[in-house]
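input
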Amino acid sequence: MALAAEELQKDLEEVKMLLEKATRKRIHDALTAEKSKTETKIKNKMQQKSQKKAEPLGNEKPAAVVTPITTGYTVKISYYGWDQSEKFVKIYITLTGVHQVPAENVQVHFTERSFDLLVKNLYGKSYSMIVNNLLKPISVEGSSKKVKTNTVLM
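output
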């Protein structure tokens, strides 16, 4: 496990180096999304490592321990709806049961001209929607996500 964390850290350093050198907007956005994903993976590895250290010693296990479900693969989200006005664009993504996953399993990364949605561990699968090269720049600070019943709203 330590080897995988070291490799992820090296990947992150290289992505940061490439990000500094990137001059094209599309490449910059793609590297920013990759940086965010790698940072999330490192954070998850650290959490797993700390959870293993926190496990009780001996053969005893508490009754409330639930083993995490590992996702088999990632499904690309291609069906969605949207609503737009002069100031706002809302994107609606329907995923049955998304309101039942932990909030930290629904991640959105916004840049000025792109967004990246990742829903982890929804019935054993991850769901991803990446949109690069938006027609107009968006406000990263003003962008948000809401998880509603069977819907993610961005």
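quick obs: Confidence is low (pLDDT under 50) at residues 62-67.
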